[in-house]
Amino acid sequence: MTGQVQFDSHVLHLLETTVALVNAVTPGTAGGRPRGVLASADLGAAVAGAVHVDTVEAADAEHLAELAGRARQVVQAVADHDPDRAAGIVNVLLLETGARPQLDPAAAGGWALHFHGPDDTLARGWAAGIAAGLAVALGSGLGGRLGVCDAAGCDRIYLDVSRNSGRRFCSPRCQSRTKAAAHRERSR
Q1: Do 136 and 10 meet the contact criterion of CB atoms below 8 Å apart?
Q2: Which residue from 24, 64, 111, 149 has the highest number of Cβ atoms inside 10 Å of its Cβ?
Q3: Three-state DSSP string of the chain
Q4: Mean pLDDT of 104-112
Q5: What's the pLDDT at 182?
Q6: At residue 8, does pLDDT exceed 90?
Q7: For residue 130, which of 36, 46, 17 has the smallest C-alpha distance?
Q8: CB-based contacts of 112: which residues, under 8 Å, 6+ apart?
Q9: Which among 141, 118, 182, 119 is positioned nearest to 1, based on CA atoms?
Q10: Cβ neighbours, 10 Å, residue 114
Q11: What CA–CA distances, in Å, run from 146 to 16, 18, 20, 22?
């Protein structure tokens, strides 16, 4: 694939939020450090930060944290070159969340395609939107723009919106750690 990635702005926002949510609340490793399961108080704050709201009820935070774990599985399946597994997980998410497209008035006039859940509650709305965003990415051939960090000791995910589709790391920090380690190894 060449040229700038062409996600619609709503889908791009959903995928960026998916990445933020997964990286904020799922256990694993980040930058060479282990990340455990978040305590309830920390979980609410992490979810709120990822979805850009001030506060999140405990039940909503738990619901979205569970969704984040499943979204991580989708990205891992993409990274493992297993599109069938990724699509299977997304299809289940679409059914469970009741994701549905809807035309909403656009800020600049006209209409914009958005995705909604069966109601407008925080957790159900975001869950449906995230499921739909993942489905659009996979179904449009842009699923390969989702990835898992290549740095040793890091399993955070990223969305590659670069022109050359060359992103391999979740952050500049992980990229620098990897380059420094490679330099040290060559210097030996």
Answers
A1: no
A2: 64
A3: CCCCCCCCHHHHHHHHHHHHHHHHHCCEEECCEEECCCCHHHHHHHHHHHHCCCCCCHHHHHHHHHHHHHHHHHHHHHHCCCHHHHHHHHHHHHHHHCCEEEEEECCCCCEEEEEECCCCCHHHHHHHHHHHHHHHHHHCCCHHHEEECCCCCCCCEEECCCCCCCCCCCCHHHHHHHHHHHHHHHHC
A4: 89
A5: 77
A6: no
A7: 17
A8: 9, 10, 103, 104, 105, 106
A9: 141
A10: 19
A11: 10, 10, 12, 12
Tokens of 188: 């030996």
Residues in the chain: 188
Which amino acid makes up residue 49?
G
* CA separation for the pair 145, 120 (Å, rounded): 29
**Count of CB atoms situated within 10 Å of the CB of 4:** 9
Q: Give residue limits of the domains in the chain.
A: 9-187
Residue 41 pLDDT class (50, 70, 90 cuts):
confident
